[in-house]
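User: Before I run my own analysis I want an independent prediction to cross-check against. Here's the chain; please return only the structure tokens and, at the end, one sentence I can use as a sanity check.
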Amino acid sequence: MSKNETNLSEENIDEVVETEENVDILPDEYISKLEGELAEQRKKTDEYFEHLKRNMAEFDNYKKRISKEKDTMYNVIASDLVADILPILDNFEKALNSETEESSFKEGISMIHTQLVDVLKKIGVVEIEALNSTFDPNLHEAVMHVEDENFSEKEVVEVFRKGYIIGDKVVRHAMVKVAN
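Assistant: Structure tokens:
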């Protein structure tokens, strides 16, 4: 027998005997006690797991909310910027429709207009289709009405100013003339 085994047995002999006696004498109570502790640990584990699932769901909702807010913020900022650029686009279109004998000037204006339209398309700006469509107050602004049997009811017959949307947001309503 080694020195460590001797020390262990001399110092802890009472504990070992007491534990062995408890196991031998009260096995049902000991097992019940262990089962109770196990049930308590399972309950705590289930609580921790439910807490973890709630936190994961809350985090997922947070990510979705932040993403939606980011998209909304982008659309608001972009629509404000586009609203400032649209009068410039209107002026380019007026210049393209004007009569001039300078073909190189008209070609340059056309190129700049095309570039501007391409940039607007790239950021998601879409022209509102108005001509020959049914009047929609969410997209169109009626400034004139005309009675004409050649057109159906609430049909847009003329566009005075183009309208644009970005995402779901109307940047500028189309200014139109509506029949009947």
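Sanity check: The helical segments are 3-25, 27-97, 103-122.
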